[in-house]
Amino acid sequence: MLIVEPKPIEEVLSFLDGEAGVFIVACNGCPVGAEVGGEPKALEMKARIEDAGKRVTGLVAIEFLCNKALSGLHLARHISEIDEATCILVLSCGVGVQAIANTVDKPAYPAFNTLPMRGAPGVWQSTERCNQCGDCLLYLTGGLCPVTLCAKSLLNGACGGTNNGKCEVDPQLDCGWYLIYERLKRIGRLDILKRYVPPKDFQKYMPSAELRNSRLWALEKKGI
Amino acid sequence: MSKISEKFARGEFVITSEVGPPKGTNIEPVLKEAEELRDCVDAFNVTDQQSSVMRLGSLVTCYLLKQRGLEPILQVTCRDRNRIALQSDLLSAAVLGIENVLCLTGDHVTLGDHPQAKPVFDLDSVQLLKVAKGLTEGRDMMGNELDGKPNFFLGAVVSPGYEPIELQLIKMEKKIEAGAQFFQTQAVYDVKVFERFMEKAGKFGVPIMLGIVLLKSPAMARYMNENVAGVTVPDELINELASVSREDRPKKSVEIAGRLIRQMKDMCQGVHIMPLGWDKYVPAVIEEAGL
């Protein structure tokens, strides 16, 4: 299980700024366990962003977003609502946001931060990776994670070592920033790439005392 | 005041070369090589553990050049130091009178001679530029006030032969926004590639120095084509270099470098020559280029 916490609503509204329509996808898996996710929380989120004057084109809650086949089936029933939206707001861990980004050609924005558990995996085997950095940046990259995809975890674009879209560390590895560029270009959102990304706060990589003393952490340790 | 920044401001063409600190403490030969170029180049880049190979430090080598009245450009990479050490080293540089600072991401540690090392990359090149600029404004990256502030002329790098070039140009603009005041490019051997790049980058209004690595042999040129990102040596140049005997290669290399600079110098504001040990041929390249 991955533990998530909601981002402050101000941060969510800041990256939704300029988006004409929002489709909300909520994960009914781990976030429900963390008591911050699922359909009821998605409805709360809908109300809050509508209060801020945003249009919500639709909403869906799906068991585990990391199961992309299942997510795809659910999302297919909402195609017209997704078409009407300019972006997807995803209430899940970093794996779920990236899975949605790889399924829908719209920027996928994270509503949550994924908290550090020191190596806990997603529920389904998945190509997406989340480093649980505690400060999700997927809204700055169109939904691909530079922390896990770039060998240097660079935040402001590719280094000079990229060779034909491959990483200088291993020619079999894709350059994460090349993937991010290609994706943002494909969905016509290269403007997102021009934003300055400040250095990461590495304090957030440490599980907090509050989290370590929680019921969730105990469950995680017991492997329930 | 940085001599190269003054020269750029006067609209004069700036020539820089490169000094690679030794693996060990034997610094004299390096200083002597730089000394011999005193009258023909404006400043010397001093590389920071180039190619992730552990060597003598850039900062102390810059200081030794400065002591001899030569103008250094301190290269700073994000590979080996976290944000505390980077800021501290920048302050140290300022106290030693070093003003030109070139900010880079740095190669990954796995490419060097200590591949087991922990790669740091706490900051990236854009963030480092912003932090360095902040120091010149009298505050550290947390906003704490400094007691005495540095004066830097901040440089950055860009790769004109990189594909897709748009990704480089977006990052270049971010670097300028963050504080970059001049650019040195990756080596370019194709006038058309540089032309295409300068059509876009020339509009940013920041001095750009063409990068040239002296071609020592056809094998080296082919190696760069296969292994150095963003560098393409056209087959004509490789054949031209291969057409002469081994003894005549330096002469041919000088001719090629001089010709390339001559063809591209009017598109940019300076040239950065990377001799990779062939420092003694730099004066001839500059003469051949008509500078």
SSE ordering of chain B: HEHEHEHEHEHEHEHHHEH
Give me the secondary-structure category of chain B. alpha/beta
The N- to C-terminal Cα distance of chain B equals 24 Å
Q: Span from first to last CA of chain A?
A: 9 Å
Order of strands side by side in the largest beta sheet of chain B?
A: 1-2-3-4-5-6-7-8
Fraction in helix of chain A: 25-40%
What's the total helix number of chain A?
Answer: 10
Query: How many whole angstroms does the radius of gyration of chain A measure?
Result: 17 Å
Estimated share of beta-strand residues of chain B: 15-25%
**How many DSSP E strands of chain A?**
6
- Gross morphology of chain B: globular
The quaternary structure here is: heterodimer
Count of helical segments of chain B? 11
Q: Strands of the biggest beta sheet of chain A: in what spatial order? A: 3-2-4-5
What fraction of the residues of chain A are assigned to beta strands by DSSP? Answer: 5-15%
Number of strands of chain B: 8
Order of helices and strands of chain A: EHEHHEHHEHEEHHHH
Task: Explain what the structure shows.
The complex is a heterodimer of chains A (224) and B (291). With 224 residues, chain A is an alpha/beta fold. Helix content of chain A is 34%, strand content 13%. Chain A is built from ten helices and six strands, in the order E-H-E-H-H-E-H-H-E-H-E-E-H-H-H-H. In chain A, helix 6 links the parallel strand 4 (87-91) and strand 5. The radius of gyration of chain A is 17 Å and the shape is globular. The radius of gyration of chain B is 18 Å and the shape is globular. The two termini of chain B are 24 Å apart. The model of chain B has no long low-confidence stretch (mean pLDDT 97). The interface between A and B is medium-sized, with 28 and 34 residues.
